[in-house]
Amino acid sequence: MSFKMRAIWFCVVVTFTFVESSSQIGSLRGYFSTKPEVRIINGEVCKPHCMPYIVGINLEMPYGNDFCSGSLISPNYVLTAAHCLDTALKAEVIFGAHNITANEPTQVHQMVATDNFIIHPGWGNDGQLTHDLALIKLHQPVAENEYIKIVELASGTDRYVSSIGRIAGWGMTSNEQTVVTALLRYVDGTIMSKKACRLVDSSYRRIIRDTHLCLSGSSSRGNIGTCGGDSGGPLAVDGVQVGIVSFGTSQCGIGKPSVFTRVSSYTDWITSNSDVVINK
């Protein structure tokens, strides 16, 4: 299998229901994008299997191949972003990978058809970037081992403001790059409050909701962000998944926050549509 593919690059033409005038629409057009995969800014290569719950997702699309990430949340289910799957024809899910372009002995591959995609019914219905999550039901259970683990999901009461969150992925490392990065990379950042995130600028103020989490775009190491974590990948705090990579600004590397679907806002939906049990 070839991994010469594009990571998801889904530009948003903004016609949000909360925009009040055509001039406001023009100011937001192209500002946000669900394409957080261009490069990991100031990130590092993970030690092999440092996040054993992260999975790669090779997607067959009507226009070619794309790539997303996700997380193993039970032996039978993977959690990812809705925008990764909403037009996909089928998916190859890769577990236990460090070098995603190699056929490593630790890897387990599974092909999944669209019948096993469970996309949140609210995605795309309100004109805003909310409810960006989906499940993949696996055809066969995946066994845990040293290289493949199930991630714990955040409960409905957890907030995590000011906590250090970790994102990772095989996203591209430069705007010029056209293939995924071979080795898993990660970066750590501080989770912001909703108020602080909305105060970044008027565009963030209009789009950020309670169901989002924001990761600061700057740190002591410089600008960071999910321009390098593949779409659908996990945001984790101390090994607990608190977010799903959703979107960022269309200009990567300028120090603006990256935005995630807040896992704790969707515990009921996840448990109702899978075999996952989340302690509240």
From TrEMBL:
Subcellular location: Secreted, Extracellular space
Stretches assigned to the Peptidase S1 domain: 40-275
MF-aspect GO terms: serine-type endopeptidase activity
InterPro entries (UniProt xref): Peptidase_S1, Peptidase_S1_PA, Peptidase_S1_PA_chymotrypsin, Peptidase_S1A, Trypsin_dom, TRYPSIN_HIS, TRYPSIN_SER
Stretches that traverse the bilayer: none
Signal peptide: 1-21
A Gene Ontology biological process term: proteolysis
SMART domains per record: Tryp_SPc
Cellular component GO terms held in the UniProt record: extracellular region
Alphabetical UniProt keywords: Disulfide bond, Hydrolase, Protease, Serine protease, Signal
Coiled coil location: none
Family from the record: Belongs to the peptidase S1 family.
Protein's name in the database: Peptidase S1 domain-containing protein
Organism encoding this protein: Acanthoscelides obtectus (Bean weevil)
